[in-house]
Amino acid sequence: MDANKLRFGHKVLIDGQPYIVLMATLRQQPRLASKMITKMKNLLTGSIIERTFTGGDKIDEADITTTPAKYLYNDGSSFYFMDNETFEQFEFTADKIGDSKDFLIEDTDVYVMRFNGNPVDIDLPPTVTMEVVETEPGVRGDTAQGGSKPAKLATGLMVNVPLFINEGDKIVINTETREYRERITRSF
Predict the structure, then answer these.
(1) Please, where are the H alpha helices in the chain?
(2) 53 and 35 in contact (C-beta within 8 Å)?
(3) Nearest one of 156, 152, 155 to 165, comparing CA atoms
(4) Which phi and psi (to 5°) does residue 120 adopt?
(5) pLDDT, tens digit, 9 for 90 and up, residues 101-121
(6) Which fold has domain 127-184?
(7) Which DSSP string corresponds to 91-114?
(8) Which residues of the chain fall below pLDDT 70?
């Protein structure tokens, strides 16, 4: 693949190691070859690197397979998952999971990335539904300006939510931007 085609989420092979692209910015330069400035995460070690490629550089795509899995629980230092197809259980350390831990509630459906058949990382769904456990009381009628307030979710994640959100409400969070998306209305 041409380095200029790199985008967020692409999985590539660099020096025999699988990486996932976290950021890719194409910088055009007059009379010079364009440059692709990237930030990538090593799927085996979890380390982050920054690498700049020039136009015309070729990069191999990593042979990563993705299978559905379910998050089971954590014991403080490790997070445990189960493959939905083989029922195999596996674990990742808290360091390996990184900021994804903010979205992991028991029974959350995720995708596990495998390199050479071994689990190397997880891929979160685009959105997750979480419960608000702590926030200031909602203010009635104070929505004309579209204000927001901080709210603490079940995993400890802090997000800004609209003023009408109350404790106990279930809300949808975008896992990529870490922002409030909508409130789930209760059906009786």
Answers:
(1) 94-97
(2) yes
(3) 152
(4) -120, -25
(5) 888 888 889 999 888 888 888
(6) OB fold (Dihydrolipoamide Acetyltransferase, E2P) (2.40.50)
(7) EEEHHHHGGGGGG--TT-EEEEEE
(8) 138-146, 186-188
pLDDT digits (tens, 9 = 90+) for 14-27: 888 899 888 888 88
Please give the CATH topology (third level) of the domain spanning 66-123: OB fold (Dihydrolipoamide Acetyltransferase, E2P) (2.40.50)
66-123 against 127-184: fold identical: yes
Tell me what pLDDT residue 155 has. Answer: 87
Which tokens belong to 131? Answer: 């419960």
pTM exceeds 0.70: yes
Q: What is the domain partition of the chain in residue ranges?
A: 3-61, 66-123, 127-184
Cβ-contact 21, 51 below 8 angstroms: no
CB 81 within 8 Å of CB 110: yes
What are the strands of the beta sheet with 11-14, ordered from one edge? 48-54, 35-42, 17-27, 11-14, 60-61
Which CATH number does 3-61 carry? 2.30.30.30
